[in-house]
Amino acid sequence: MPAASAQQPNGDTLRIGLVLPDSAARTPAMASAARGVVMGAEEAARSAALFGRTVRLVEGADAARLVGEGRVLALLGGFGDAECRALGGLAQARGVVFVDLGCAGDALRGRECRRASFHVAPSAAMRAVASALAGVAGGGVEMWDTRLERFGADQLNQRFRARFGEGMDSQGWAGWFAVKMLWESALRARSAEPAALLRYLESDAAQFDGHKGRPLSFRPWDHQLRQPLYVAAPSADAPVEVPRAQPGADESSREVLDRLGTPREKSECRMGEARPGDRLRGE
Amino acid sequence: MRSTALALLISLVSSPALAQQRAALAFVSNEGSRDISVIDTRTNRVVATIPVGVRPRGIQASPDGRRVYVALSDEHPNATSRGDAIAVIDVATRRVVARYAAGSDPEQFAVTPDGARLYASNEDAGTASATDLRTGRVLATLVVGIEPEGVAASPDGRWIYVTAETSNTVSVIDARANRVVTNILADLRPRAAAFSPDGARAYVTNEVSGTLMVVDTRTHQVLRSVELERGEGKPVGVVVSPDGARVYVANGAASAVTVLDARTLRQVARIPVGRRPWGIALTRDGRRLYAACGLANEVHVIDTATNRVVARVPVGNRPWGVAIAR
């Protein structure tokens, strides 16, 4: 892990930590996510340079060390509910933000939710609704598909392929999007402090473009990313996007996307009930 | 009888002197059929189709109206080939007479008001290139945001605004020095930019936010941003009337053109058009607005006095942009 440069003031640098084992011990999903995070960090660094800012990515298996010595303001990872629980707890205790890239557990967004955790990965509840909505037999529910073209999806797919020699899959998209989202939040919140990031992410203003054609945002009641999903049958030419707007219905993107997942009134998350001692750095 | 025929014959012979008297022509880039439809604005009929062989997208007329420039892309977005170019169409003969290199995957561009230079966005390279139109040489390649798209030149030629869809930025190029002097943070997926005739304001559409953003060009600061179509319209094309009083925005997803009061940014009219209007252009007198409706394979013509569609012109496949030449 590179040593942090003491000369870099926090306000100009967003330090992001990717929590993953060494390359040899990574599952395919982890490897994909890592590629997405790397490209996301490269692109965020390019965008940041336009504003005289820096984005730094540090990787390691030891999340506590990333927060301590690595001085990261956000942790990315989570490839199983137990790991998301642990990383969410650590982030909450140490006052940083955790972005879940790969956990589907509904409880993580419900009874066990934490204010410091934000879920880019869709929940099991979202996946179930997407599957039933889609009307495609035998299709897997995905965040992304290499065959997507609209809204600049072709550009993103081409950039990823040019960078890594293979197509972008769901985990690749999640990693790429998580970094883009964090960098843009820091820029728009005019702060790379975790407390300011968190406040921005919970605000109505926080909207992101993920090349899916709709503004993406986090639900304030459970910090789940609202996003279209794609159901691809092995035999089909192109994936089916869900949810689709009802023809003629006058719905906002938020209303359409909230058809996937747990509505506010059914949420068991009590975000406001942070434990004593739970504070975010910068508050 | 005889003299009438002779007069007709003379009027058909193209010459620079007579070119001034001809009706304005609307040139439409058809991304799907890889050709350019030429519409006579008096009759609103297609009078010529110019094949270009590859995907044409951005299209602009030279200030003197004698040439039309069109951005061409091949099928390989991340590689530069002979297919990637800015083609020059001679308005009098309606033929492609020259090609300029403009980096890989040129999509949108602007011609400076003096007609001397062309600034293009290179979508996959994240750059904007300045080309000298007299020599065809690339004068400068400048780093802008990721996935650059819309390009606009200020009326005095001093500033070039380049949007970038992934970075959500507008890069401001000082055309005198060919340097990026600042970057403006936009809403989500900024697409097109247009300056007011007095140069004091620039308007930027943001496709995914569904907003129109107004920039003070003295400070390059965002003054405000207004939602169109409740944020769901996916706006792309934007033009300003010659008197500066009206701003027209093409909302692709809403299949409608929004007319705004330039001073208050209040909507004064909403004009339903064909499916997925993207590129729009006004005639020089501001009396007609031409909208390329990509999924209708038509150009819809709006009378700006009544804000009504007065003609629907079938063109090629997937019309993308439109430019008016004298």
Rg estimate of chain A, integer Å: 18 Å
| Portion in helices of chain A | 25-40%
Instruction: Determine the structural class of chain A based on helices, strands and strand pairing.
Output: alpha/beta
Q: Work out the oligomeric state of the chains in this entry.
A: heterodimer
- Per the principal axes of the C-alpha atoms, what is the gross shape of chain B? globular
What is the 3D shape of chain A?
Answer: globular
Whole-number radius of gyration of chain B?
A: 19 Å
Mean pLDDT of chain B: 92
Greatest contact pair?
A-B, 27 and 27 residues
Residue runs with pLDDT of under 50 for 5 or more positions of chain A: 1-10, 273-277
The SS-based structural class of chain B is mainly beta
- Widest sheet: strand ordering of chain B: 3-2-1-28
Q: Could you explain how this protein is built, in words?
A:
The complex is a heterodimer of chains A (283) and B (326). Chain A is of the alpha/beta class and 283 residues long. In chain A, 36% of the residues lie in helices and 15% in strands. In chain A, strand 10 (229-232) and strand 11 form a beta hairpin. Chain B has helices at 2-12, 16-19, and strands spanning 25-30, 35-40, 45-51, 55-61, 67-73, 85-90, 95-100, 106-111, 117-122, 127-132, 138-143, 148-153, 159-164, 169-174, 179-185, 190-195, 201-206, 211-216, 221-227, 235-240, 246-251, 256-261, 267-272, 277-282, 288-293, 298-303, 308-314, 319-325. The model of chain B is unreliable at 4-20 (pLDDT under 50). Chain B starts with a helix and ends with a strand. Helices cover 5% and strands 54% of the residues of chain B. In chain B, strands 3-2-1-28 form a 4-stranded antiparallel beta sheet, with no helix packed on it. Chain B has a 4-stranded antiparallel beta sheet with strand order 4-5-6-7, with no helix packed on it. A 4-stranded antiparallel beta sheet of chain B has the order 8-9-10-11, with no helix packed on it. In chain B, a hairpin with a 5-residue loop joins strand 20 and strand 21 (246-251). Chains A and B meet through helix 1, helix 6, helix 7 and strand 7 of A and strand 15 of B.
